[in-house]
Amino acid sequence: MNEIEIRMLYHSHVYGGDTIKIGFIGPGKVGVSLGRYFTHKGIELSGFYGKDDLNTIDAANITKSKFYNNIQDIIKDSDILFITTPDDIISIIDIELSKFDLNNKSICHTSGSLKSNVLCNAKHSGAMIYSLHPIFAFSSKETKLKELEDIYFSIEGDILEDSSIISVLKLIGNKYFVRKAEDSSTYHLASVFVSNLALSLLDIGTSYLKKLGLDDEEALNALKPLIKGNIDSIYAKGFVNSLTGPIARGDITTIEKHISVLEDKDKDLYKILSFNLLKLVALRDKNNADITENIEECFYSMENKSQIENVLSNSKKHLEIYKFLGGVN
Asked: pTM of the full predicted structure?
């Protein structure tokens, strides 16, 4: 029996049928939203600890839990501690926690980019450690609880099927998956692409409507049905079957007009995203399995232009678009 199994056996004996109490270090948007959600799901909170007393008291009041101004006390009163602070503070908190006996405690941080081993000092002091990341953008402490019903969690760390943190995930009923520590950066990149970078892309798109005289709100509202309709279509039909627009149609005249009005700073981005759309077009129009196997490799190895041209050879208009975009600097 290894060290983790011994600890978990002891955890099971200690917890038994008793209620597991969860505490939060960090009274911000993530901590308060998760605290409210856990309470909604019948999980008991010990309370909140944080550097700013007013924010911490507010977090405790919102979640009807206890305010702690002493880290030792929240450790004593909690079975699981969630660290819901900015990433660069987590290692500092880890050192603070490790000054105390953490046997029979589980320590989780909610960063998607950091591995669980950022809590290595806590582990040496007896804790089970985890990176438990909710795949959601928390923009407020008042996150609607209904929205949290559908979010996924990803988890990495000292995981066994009967660990207390897995029990919590099963109790709240949200779907979750286990990731490897070495995959943390790749995992977080997926979230950044569809959240932060998508936000940036929407900002760029609305900026072209603002050139016509619309303000921020008008531009975003005008594009909202298009944005929402596209997302709904992707979920209903998938990426390939949701293709629309000039790339999908092979409309090079429209693309030439786009290039003529694009700001220089946006041209490379337009080219990269259009190449990815051409990859989806090739998948849509594939005629045999041999081509399908090469599509991903061809489009992400842009130096091999002959292979890409071969993939697109069944559509002269899409091949023409590819060659035209290849000339964008």
From this structure: 0.79
